[in-house]
Amino acid sequence: MTKMPRALVISTGVRRARGGRRDAGAFRRLVRGDRDALADLYDAHAASLFRHGLALTRSRSDAEDLVQAVFLKLATTGAPLLAVRNPANYLHRILRAAWIDARRRPAVQFEEPADLDADARAFDCRDVTEAAIDVTTAVARLPAVQREIVALHLIEGFSFREAGRITGVSMFTAASRYRVALERLRQMMGRR
User: Fold this and answer.
1) Domain that includes residue 58, residue range
2) Least trusted range by pLDDT, from 54-63, 108-117, 126-135
3) CB 53 within 8 A of CB 62
4) Does pTM surpass 0.70?
5) Inside any domain, residue 11
6) Across residues 171-184, what is the average pLDDT?
7) Band of residue 125 on the pLDDT scale cut at 50, 70, 90
8) Is 5 domain-assigned?
């Protein structure tokens, strides 16, 4: 009996609320010197930022370093935080900028993980079924720009416009990258 290929079905599910007013209040508190505000922002956004970093780097330690860089920058920015309209987008843009800076430094080498399957399981951090592991492995094999859009749109719930702003591309480019990523995932899953 031959194994039938599974159809790839991806649903965006429910859009996650990103407490914009609460975050803006935390930014104001942070500018006034309230260090508890930094902890509140960390609690609200660290997991999302970590997943975004993991989509970019495919390395848990590099993703943790990127999250640390975001909150270090946040702690030292000061008054310009008062002008931020969308705190969640701002934090993700800082993370992406830190990733770009790290890739530009000659001393930092981002290596492709030796075990894509183990790295893919780390991507979601939850016990998942075999089919979900197959999808996660396929996502881990996508190029970084496509993995990033998939993570921002599908996992974090950002619209294409928001994901485009975070990544520095138009919403049409973000949507195109997402469509290409889904097509590649369908092709990869069809081979199994």
Assistant:
1) 19-111
2) 108-117
3) yes
4) no
5) no
6) 93
7) very low
8) no
